[in-house]
């Protein structure tokens, strides 16, 4: 087998190499998915759907945890109702404008922390 510096495995992987590297233990489904992926028939969305993972549940749990953490950390300096109202406004904004929904919790947390550190939960519109 050639060294990675000479081009190695990454440039020499094809269907035959895949079949040798991942024998029947991987199973027909993955082999079929790989071949379909190589032919452009499978996308990451299809692979996610096969696993039946509902990422909205994970996002909602993350948002709940972020809200609770912000309340615990900042409720001594801001009223809990103000924090909740600002959180809801930021969340509405990011849900309405999100290109990738999976990033909404991170964006909401970052914007809320910026607002809290600045001392303005509801900054004036520019």
Notable traits:
7 helices, disordered N terminus, mainly alpha
Number of helices: 7
Per DSSP, what share of the residues sits in E-state strands of 2 or more residues? under 5%
| Broad shape | globular
| Low-pLDDT sequence parts | 1-15, 22-29, 42-48
| Number of structurally distinct domains | 2
The biggest sheet, with number of strands, parallel, antiparallel or mixed sense and barrel status, is:
none
The number of strands is: 0
- Sketch the topology as an H/E string, one letter per element: HHHHHHH
Describe this structure in words.
The N and C termini lie far apart (61 Å). The protein has 126 residues and is an all-alpha fold. It folds into 2 domains: 4-51, no CATH class; 55-118. Residues 1-15, 22-29 and 42-48 have low confidence and may be disordered. It has 7 helices and no strands. Helix 5 runs antiparallel to helix 6, helix 5 (55-74) packs parallel to helix 7 and helix 6 packs across helix 7 (104-118).
